[in-house]
Design goal:
The longest helix is centred in the last third of the chain and has 23 residues, at about 265-290. About 35% of the residues lie in helices and about 25% in strands. It starts with 6 loop residues before the first strand and ends with a helix. Strands 4-5-10-6-7 form a five-stranded antiparallel β-sheet. A four-stranded antiparallel β-sheet has the order 11-12-13-14, with helices on both faces. Strands 1-3-2 form a three-stranded parallel β-sheet, covered by helices on one side. By secondary structure, it is α+β, with helices and mostly antiparallel strands. The chain is globular. It binds flavin-adenine dinucleotide (FAD). The site of flavin-adenine dinucleotide has 29 residues, from β2, α2, α7, α8 and β10. The site of flavin-adenine dinucleotide (FAD) has 29 residues, from β2, α2, α7, α8 and β10.
Length: about 300
């Protein structure tokens, strides 16, 4: 299919892009890598009257170290983040997650900001942003504001972005000492969207008890979902195999109410959420305790 007719603008500067967004408001959509927007336009699920192509806008791309952690410009290609030594060093959960997104060809073109802004409930990056307590920089002609990832996702394919606003950057805070992380998902074929995915972040105190823990799931609801009951059950406890098993059971029994669709039944998603939660929690706790895996040892 072909898209409905639209006007096309290709600004060179951020000021120009923000000016066009202010002029056209809700009629306009920014075009980043086009890997989600163009297919939805071709199917006429999206019919923006105006496309504002961000691909020539200077200053929206790049990965850099900041005081609190890592900052990634919205137009940074997913492949660049996947290959970045700085990402591996400062945000290893993100590094572990990147290869799970789609296929290399799509990551070559798709952007970090495009995935965060698109807010697909089966996408990996929104879940990682929530898991890491990231914040997002939104810019418009009116000024700029930082929004915590947790508040950015407001529903199915819905975000806190207002008409005229652009996602400019994401900031991923550094994890404290004695922290561990892990991401895993199950999909039908390599590169497919996940049937369910899970990210865990754990910080232990000096005695090996859980000071902070989070499990964030994708593809079980309208957006990234934090498993509050399960992770609350671990706080103050030593994360033994039994405690992790019980927390993972709580994820499935109490924290989620997944949908059934053509890809998987609710019951199957529940089972996957439990199994994946146990795996990522176990790995995150091992890493927090400093137990390296064979692959990690090989890299050192
Ligand atoms: P675009 O498609 O250009 O834009 C997506 C949306 O975000 C549009 O509404 C656009 O207006 C808006 N937008 C883009 N940038 C900004 C910005 N800076 N500020 C405000 N709004 C903005 N993704 C996954 O996460 N996991 C997968 O497993 C996966 N599998 C895929 C498989 C296939 C076959 C395909 C085609 C895509 C898949 N994707 C998957 C999607 C892919 O990751 C996209 O790259 C991503 O979702 C969108 O990024 P983009 O840069 O292409 O954005």
């Amino acid at each position: 299919m072909k898209p409905a007719p639209f006007r096309y603008h290709r600004p060179d500067t951020l000021d120009e892009a923000l000016g066009l967004l202010a002029e056209y408001g809700a009629q306009a959509k920014p075009l980043a890598g086009g890997q989600s927007l163009i297919p939805t336009m071709n199917f006429r699920l999206a019919q923006p009257a105006v496309l504002i192509d961000l691909n020539r806008v200077k200053g929206l791309e790049g990965i850099r170290e900041a005081r609190k952690g890592l900052r990634i410009g919205a137009m940074t290609r997913q492949r660049a983040a996947e290959r970045s030594a700085l990402v591996r060093q400062l945000s290893p959960l993100l590094a572990e997650t990147m290869p799970w997104i789609a296929h290399p060809q799509i990551r070559n073109r798709g952007t970090v900001g495009g995935s965060l802004a698109h807010a697909d409930p089966a996408a990996e990056l929104p879940a990682v942003a929530v898991a890491l307590d990231a914040r997002l920089l939104l810019q418009s002609q009116r000024g700029e504001r930082w929004v915590p990832a947790r508040e950015f996702y407001t529903g199915l394919f819905a975000t806190a972005l207002a008409p005229g606003e652009l996602l400019a950057e994401v900031e991923l805070p550094r994890l404290p000492r004695r922290s561990g992380w892990a991401f895993e998902e199950i999909s039908r074929r390599v590169g497919d969207y996940a049937l369910v995915g899970a990210a865990a972040v754990v910080t232990l105190d000096r005695k090996g008890r859980c000071e902070r823990s989070s499990i964030t799931l994708l593809s079980v609801g309208d957006g990234p979902l934090g498993a509050a009951e399960a992770t609350g059950s671990l706080i103050g406890q030593e994360p033994t195999a039994q405690a992790i098993r019980e927390a993972s059971h709580l994820v499935a029994a109490r924290d989620i109410d997944p949908p059934s669709d053509i890809h998987a039944s609710a019951a199957y998603r529940r089972k996957l959420a439990e199994v994946l939660s146990e795996r990522v929690l176990r790995r995150a706790c091992d890493r927090a305790r400093g137990v390296a895996e064979v692959g990690e040892l090989a890299q050192t």
